[in-house]
Amino acid sequence: MSWNEPGGDDKDPWSGRGDDKKPPDLDEVIRSLQEKLAKLFGGGNNNDGGDDNSSGNFSSDNSMKGLGILAGVGVVLWGLTGIYVVDEGNNGVETRFGKFTVITQSGLHWHLPTPFERVDIVNVKQQRSIEVGYRSVAGTEQAASSIPKEALMLTEDENIVDVSLNVRYQIDNAQEFLFNVANPIATLKQVTESAQRGVVGKHTMDYVLTEGRSIIEEDVKTEIQKIMKPYHSGILVTGVNLQDAQPPEKVQNAFVDAIKAREDKERLINEAQAYANDVVPKARGAAARKIQEAEGYKEQVIAQAEGEVSRFSQLLTEYKKAPDVTRKRLYIEAMESVLSETNTVMVNVKDGANNMLYLPLDKIMQQQPSVQPPISTNSPQSVAEPLLPKPSVVEKSASFDRSTARGRDSRGRSDAE
Fold first, then answer.
1. What's phi and psi for 162, nearest 5 deg?
2. What's the 3-state SS for the chain?
3. First CA to last CA distance, the chain
4. pLDDT for residue 103
5. Cβ–Cβ under 8 Å, residues 219 and 150
6. Domain 128-247's class?
7. Contact 335, 405 (CB under 8 A)
8. Is the pTM of this model over 0.85?
9. pLDDT recorded at residue 274
10. Number of Cβ within a 10 Å radius of residue 329
């Protein structure tokens, strides 16, 4: 009987609007899930007429075993996430629920996986740097732009100077670096600004811009390390480099002119000093030479005077012993000294004779050596001769006759008497 005939059931075979709506059976859902898990791990329903009870127990055991294997695999994978490697030059800082536990060195290590433990890798050998007063171009240390808020500071002589500083540092203690200070890099930068201003404020502007750069770098480094030490920040300052120090941009031209004038002053002073170093030693040498010449002349004059006094004393002694002989000798020596400087030729001519000389006597006198006649030992002068100093006289007249001169002297003196 069709559904729309009289006496048939009023059910729509397509829509099922006549069925009662009921919730699904929970036992059926669980059984279906167990069958799927059993199929997944190699089990199945026993359709060979076995007991339904035993089939259900077997399916439950297989599902529990599968869940255990799945959980074990998950635990193993979770445990493997705790393996980590620390490279050379790094330290691993392990924490358990946020509390520090241990520092690990380079190598392969393991820690309890998240969320129980975690590890932070810190490079303790890397040289890092911060820039104060400027910002450099990427990849270089050349200053690209100045930061007036950080760079401008006051000197001891109340001048403003623009200073750019580069601080190099490395992490000395990984634990202190991570846990003692909230932001150690920002702290280091603030400390650097404070130390820099303190050191620059103790010196004059000329000192900061010229010869004091190296000393300021060392003082800033010492001051930074001194301030950072009580914080135990784990940072070690390895070097401070004064990148640039100059007056503010608005007064740079005037300051450059002042520097040029100062350099010209130093150059002129150096040139004058070099000239003085050249002239003064020569003047001192000339003065010393003059002094030595004067001392020599003094000694010469004194020696000559003493010699003349000694000679006069000896002549006086001899004169007292033999006045006539000494008087004649003095006269002869005086005439010899005078005539030796002239070209006079003395000829002994008898009275009334008229001899004519044609020989070139002046030439002959220049060619012939002077011959001094020996003094007789029987003469009275032999007694006084050894005591008298012999004068150094160059006799030009070879024909000079001492006996004739003595005769003339005696006659002339007797005539004068």
1. -100, 110
2. CCCCCCCCCCCCCCCCCCCCCCCCCHHHHHHHHHHHHHHHCCCCCCCCCCCHHHHHHHHHHHHHHHHHHHHHHHHHHHHHCCEEEECCCEEEEEEECCEEEEEECCEEEECCCCCCEEEEEEECCCCEEEEECEEECCCCCCEEEECHHHHEEECCCCCEEEEEEEEEEEECCHHHHHHCCCCHHHHHHHHHHHHHHHHHCCCCHHHHHCCCHHHHHHHHHHHHHHHHHHHCCCEEEEEEEEEEEECCHHHHHHHHHHHHHHHHHHHHHHHHHHHHHHHHHHHHHHHHHHHHHHHHHHHHHHHHHHHHHHHHHHHHHHHHHCHHHHHHHHHHHHHHHHHCCCCCCCCCCCCCCCCCCCCCHHHHHHHCCCCCCCCCCCCCHHHHHHHCCCCCCCCCCCCCCHHHHHHHHHHHHHHHC
3. 217
4. 83
5. no
6. alpha beta
7. yes
8. no
9. 94
10. 20
Query: Measured between alpha carbons, how far is 169 from 127 in angstroms, rounded to an integer?
Result: 6
**Quick check: 60 and 43 in contact, CB under 8 A?**
no
Asked whether 243 and 220 are in contact (CB, 8 A), the reply is: no
Distance CA 111, CA 138 (A): 38
Tokens 């001519």, residue located: 349
| Whole-angstrom distance, CA of residue 412 vs CA of residue 282 | 61
| Sites in the chain below the pLDDT cut of 70 | 1-26, 29, 33-34, 36-63, 66, 138-144, 344-417
What pLDDT was estimated at residue 318? 85
Q: What is the pLDDT of residues 236-277, one digit of tens each?
A: 999 999 888 888 877 878 878 887 898 899 999 999 999 999
Predicted local confidence at residue 276, as pLDDT: 93
The Cα–Cα gap between 161 and 151 comes to 8
Domain spans, the chain: 29-79, 83-123, 128-247, 322-416
- Rounded alpha-carbon distances, angstroms, from residue 221 to 192, 196, 308, 331, 385: 9, 9, 84, 100, 97
